[in-house]
Amino acid sequence: MPVSTITLLLIGVLASPVKAGEEHSRNMEAILAKSLHAIGNNRLDVALNEVDSLLKVNPNFKLAQLVRGDLLLARSQALNDFGNAPNVPRERMDDLRDEARARLQRAEQQQPLTSTPKYLLQLDAQQPYAIVVDTSKSTLYLYRNVNGEPRYVADFYISVGKKGADKVSEGDQKTPLGVYFINAKLPKESLSDFYGPVAFPLSYPNEWDKRLGRDGHGIWLHGTPSDTYSRPPRASSGCVVLANDDLLQIGKHVHIGHTPVIITEQMDWSDANDHTERDSLLRAVETWRKDWASRDTEAYLSHYAQDFSNGDAKFAAFAQQKRLVNSGKTWIKVGLSNISIFTYPNQPGLVVVNFEQDYSSNNLANRMNKRQYWMKHGDKWQIVYEGSA
Questions:
Q1: Other C-beta atoms within 10 Å of 83: how many?
Q2: pLDDT for res 70
Q3: Alpha helices, DSSP H only, in 41-159?
Q4: Of 2, 152, 275, 296, which is most buried with the most CB atoms under 10 A?
Q5: What is the separation of C-alpha 103 from the centre of its chain, rounded to a whole number of angstroms?
Q6: φ and ψ of 4, to 5 deg
Q7: pTM here?
Q8: How far apart are CA 258 and CA 194, in angstroms?
Q9: Which fold has domain 115-271?
C-alpha cells in the first residue's frame, strides 16, 4: 500500500520500548514514533493498532487522529502529503505537522542523565525541584535537588508563544526568557476550561525585565481545554502550556514562592562535576558579606557596579546612603543561608543569587529574603541589582 511521503520524512527514529513508570509525554511520543516507523515499513495494520492505542488513552490527541485518518485513507488511495483530511484549514494542518516534528525530535533526543543545564548552579533546601524550559525544543525539564545539585527527573512536551520567545512588551505573543519563580497556584475552580485543571503564575516581569523596560503580565504554566490533549509548539499568547496529565504531575513538585523556572531558547549543558563558576561566585558573595560586616564601607561598596540599581536608587545615591548608615554602626553581623544561584539565559555573565539574610548591628536587627543580580566584568563579579526576594 502507498504511504504518505511527508510521513516517511518525519520518521527519523525507531522509539525504544516504553518503560513502566516513564513520564506521560515520553509514553505518547514513543508510541507515535513506533506507529510512524511501522508506516515507513509499509506495516499499516501495525501502525493503525499503535495509533488506536494512543487514541484509547487520549481520544482528544488531534495529531494521532490525523495519522489515523491517513492510515484509513491509504487503504483506498495514494497519499501525497501528511494529513489528507478534506476541508481542513491549511493553518491547522501546518500546526499539526509542526507538532509531529517537535514530538519526533523529542523521541529521538537522549534524556540528559550525565549533564545538567548550566543555569542551575546551586539549589537551596527550600527548592526540592527546579524547572528548565527550552523553547526551541518544545521541552520542559524537571530536576530534583540532591544536596544542592540538580538531577534529571523527567521532560515534557510543551507549547510556547505564537511568535516564539524573548518577550518584550504586552501583547507581543512571545514567551519571556529569564529566571523566574512560581509565585501562586490557581485552582481549577478559579479558571476557565481553557487553562486546564490548574495554573501556576510566574514572576514575569522580574527585576531584570523591568530594568530593560520589558512589560506585560499573566505568564503562567497551565494546561489545555478538556477537549484538547495538546497544542502546537507555538500556540499560546506567551504562556508555557502542557498536557493536563503532565501539568498535574509537575504540580506535585511545585513549592510556591520557591520553585525556579528558567526559560531559555537554546539549552546550554555543563558537566555535572564542574563547579568552577559556582565556586567563584560563592567566594565573591562571601567576600561581600565579610566586607559589610567589617564596616569597611568602601571595600563593601566596591562589590557594586557603577551601573547598579535597586529599582529606586542608582549607585551614587545608594553609596551615599550606605556611608551615612554605616557611620552610625559600632558593630555589624551578617549571616547568609539557603543560597541559590541561577545563570541567566541569553545574558552572558549574569547570575541571580537568592539567600536568607540575618542582619544585626548595635541599633538594628532584621531577617529577610534577598535577591541579587551579579554581573561578571572581566574577572570580577559585581552586583548590578539588589532587593528583597
A1: 22
A2: 81
A3: 44-57, 62-73, 90-108
A4: 152
A5: 18
A6: -65, 130
A7: 0.90
A8: 26
A9: L,D-transpeptidase catalytic domain-like (2.40.440)
